[in-house]
Amino acid sequence: MKKKLAFLFGSLFLLAACSAGPTSGNETNGSSNAGGSADAETIKVGLNLELSGAVAGYGTQEKDGVELAVEIINEAGGILGKQVELVTKDNKSETSDAATVAANLATNDKVVAIIGPATSGATKAAIPNITKAQVPLISPSATDDSVTMNGDQVQEYVFRSSFQDSFQGVILAKYAQDQLGAKKAIILGDNSSDYAKGLSKAFKSEYKGEVVLEENFTKGDKDFQAILTKVKQTDFDVLYIPGYYEEAGLIIKQARELGIEQPIIGADGFGDEKMVQLAGAENVSNVFYTGHFSILAPSNDTVEPFVEAFKEKFGKEPSTFNALAYDAMFMIKQAIESQDAADAKAVTKGLAELKDFKGVTGNITMDAQHNPEKSLVVIGFTDGKESSAEVINP
């Protein structure tokens, strides 16, 4: 493993070159007391992830991605000559716990940055505490547009390695009408989720066809027979499901068993192997979703060595969420190296002006609203396996 990690790091070493952005804080020798200090023996990075509870599938994947990144970084000598130390906490898929974990990591554990939470609701719950502590947060997968914005004001300490919902919704609408030739769409969305609401809004604003039916479900629902019976009785070309894998998998299973054969499309919330497990591989054909990463469509030459290292460590191919979290850790590394300082202030400044970062999920430059400018992949499934991947640039 050491030889492969050294090789991989060598290819990734060239990734570090970025700039600066704003923050503040109590300073000692040019560094902020919030989030560690310049004389700390290690560089502490906190993980605030959903490691148990309803959406643990996302958090556990992201934990694996970060751990691989840290292993590679430390094997190659660390950052600025210091080893990275992860401080991992479980927010249990609860927004209240996400807020508490954020406060503990920032103020008690003195981390220089926090990766996570994975979901938009939990990330927004964490924002007041990390803002008060002046410690930056980078979410691998909180895609709600409002995560990085408070009205028309940028959330100074909040960043992400994923694209936002409005981009996904727009791309899905275009994909449905242009690639799938869909003139009539049905939207079946989660009415308890800001994520789903944002995706639905963006889709409807862009879609040039007719939305002939719009139905809702609530997170945790298991039986969709009544709704899907109404869907089957409607003349439509594509079924759009803005939601997470837990419900999407069951909807796909029940839809196919009812004889609904039209294409089904969704966003990055589909991106967990449990979606296929819940639906049954035989039912997951003519299914498409927007993703940040696909082995079938590598974004650059960092992807192959990343995939090899991940397979060696975990015995399987990496997922979108593995890749997004892996990138988040290397974005923090680049931010620190660009500022030549390993404290919260430096990380915030480096992330705010991140430019030309070569990540496994794409080449990233941070925009003025702390969103990464990068490409998107529409992934297609046949018999439960990825069978196509189309890269779409912003």
From TrEMBL:
InterPro entries: BCAA_transport, Leu-bd, Leu_Ile_Val-bd, Peripla_BP_I. This is Branched-chain amino acid ABC transporter substrate-binding protein. The keyword Membrane does not apply. GO terms for biological process: amino acid transport. Gene3D superfamilies: 3.40.50.2300. Residues 1-20 form the signal peptide. The gene is livK. SUPFAM superfamilies: Periplasmic binding protein-like I. Keywords: Amino-acid transport, Signal, Transport. Residues 42-371 form the Leucine-binding protein domain. Pfam families: Peripla_BP_6. Belongs to the leucine-binding protein family. It comes from the Bacteria.
